[in-house]
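Worked example

This section walks through a single chain of length 307. The input is the sequence exactly as stored; nothing has been trimmed or padded.
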Amino acid sequence: MFKNVGKRFAFIAVLALTLIVAACGGSDGDSESSGDNGDSSGGSNVGDGKSIELVYVEWDTEVASTHVIGKVLEDLGYDVTLTPLDNAVMWQSVANGESDAMVAAWLPATHGDLFEEYKDQVVDLGANFDGAKIGMVVPSYMDIDSIEDLPEVADELDQTITGIEPGAGVVKASENSVEEYGLDGWEVQTSSSGAMATALGEAIDNEEPIAVTGWSPHWKFAEYDLKYLEDPKEVYGGAEEIKTMARQGLEEDLPNAYKVLENFSWGEEKFNNVMLEIHNGTDPEEAAATFVEENQDLVDEWTADVE
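Given that input, the structure is written out below as tokens.
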């Protein structure tokens, strides 16, 4: 079972391990510098117990994807730590080498500012999901189809758009949409991803109007009948990618783990299924383990270049 801890505890653990290795000496202390080719068969000894830390923001998409790829790396023999962080801290952690990688970079819009800040300090391993989208989402039973129609339901919505964490890209875009569409008196009410999903579910159960900051892939599109409001001014931008970013030097230090992360890519149906399982109460580790067991052909593609 991989570890899911805060940064401070992860740092203490790594520091303690470093001191122990230094005290013991011997060839084991130099093993990481020679790569991680512990088993040419691609079996459970490939990682040879070496540590790798993946960081993620606690959005449903990233909880699902990080646990799935973490399970794949664990099965290859790595000592995997998964650490949830705020958006900005996640990027900073990979950029300064405190953590090894993330599969949580929404580009070009959502994390665009952070990518511009750190792009010269991280390694872009490419998209792990294509066709991601952000926007304003309402239940399909609402009689509006565009952001421009929101004034028609101002009283029903109390001039409120239900958002997620402050500073998230979709929240910033929604705040911009209030200004761009002249929605005077409207507010993007920030909370958390979980609180937004709860409010959405409660509204739908009662067939009440609600507008939320939305993105896909997300389990809510598998659970509910929803629609994006048209955005004629393109405030939210076009299609996005979710990309994998690694620290500089990871390819040299853990070449096989790097290859797996570089190969990691999946489609919306599988993505949504894992998210929905977790939303319905399955522990993320258990959901990831089930997915890996039931989708071995896809996992084989991700691990195909392991030596």
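What to look for: The longest helix spans residues 7-24.
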